[in-house]
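Reviewer 2 asked us to include a model.

Predict the structure of this chain.
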Amino acid sequence: MILLGKTSIQKYTMEKYAKNEKDLIRRYEKMGYDHLYRFQDGALVDTNTNEKFSPEDILIVAEHRYEGMSNPSDLSILYIIESRSGNKGSMLAGYGPSANLELAEFFKEIPEENISNKVNINAEE
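Predicted model (structure tokens):
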């Protein structure tokens, strides 16, 4: 049996199970998903290049939902995205009561064949 110190166990746990959105964003950035996206005027905009994308131009390759630690109604979703132009990144959005309805509609319009879990960090567990 190998005994790990408390620090080693905490590090292993933090690496394996991200505690919040920021942890996962960092891990995906290390995998090359380093672009950030925002929603503007009905399109998803790559903040690095200012390219605009319609729902058909977006591939969702992982998503992670979060519930607030102190307030369970504080809900967010992290989308890991690949665009048709080849850029890869993430977008953090509220859902539930805090959701931007126009943004939620945009994501509902992404074709089902453009949604997968192929790079989901937690899927391997």
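Residues 1-17 have pLDDT under 50 and may be disordered. The radius of gyration is 16 Å. We have added this to the supplementary material.
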